[in-house]
Amino acid sequence: xxxxxxxxxxxxxxxxNTVDSDFILKILGDFKQKPIDTFxxxxxxxxxxxxxxxxxxVCVVIDIVEGDSKTFLSLLDNKTQKNTKWQxxxxxxxxxxxxxxxxxxxxxxxxDLGPNLTSKFEKLVYKIGDGxxxxxxxxxxxxxxxxxxxxxxxxxxxxxxxxxKQGKVEKRFAIACIEPKNxxxxxxxxxxxxxxxxxxxxxxxxxxxxSRRNDNIVKSL
Length: 221
What we know:
The chain is of the alpha+beta class. It is 27% helix and 22% strand.
């Protein structure tokens, strides 16, 4: 397995285009269903809503995968890797289990990537809590999907394959973390929210789009 290059980190600051973790976690705490029930409902609904027009079915797989914790940690930035407080708080073991939701025959997380966060993938990952602007759409970006962060230690990895304007397959990968503000252990995290990916020149997080790098990341997980 090739050595994984650590991802860049962006730590959410007050005023960033997202709400803080306390607000998000309060909403999740108000859900009347058990977290696993909400996870299945939200996951299935999102997948079914993204069905490719003209197809008769959508394939959805929910699985538990065991992985090497050291390999996962090697993906994170150097500060987080060395943060013993974080490792102790999350009881990092040699092996970890990941809850995986995977779909096919679906579409939706497309659109051009850029600093204005206009693609649907970026809205899902980075614009949590912002009101949806699409015609006929209601609710807020990412709030339902944040139930994923309640299923473990707060980390959620997002991966998708879409066709760009040139008709070529583009792979996108990013990690988000939501943890309580009063017990945040990500170094220097005042909002309790952080992202990992490939930072632009201004330090803003963006998805990794290098195909070979994404292949190595997904295989390692």
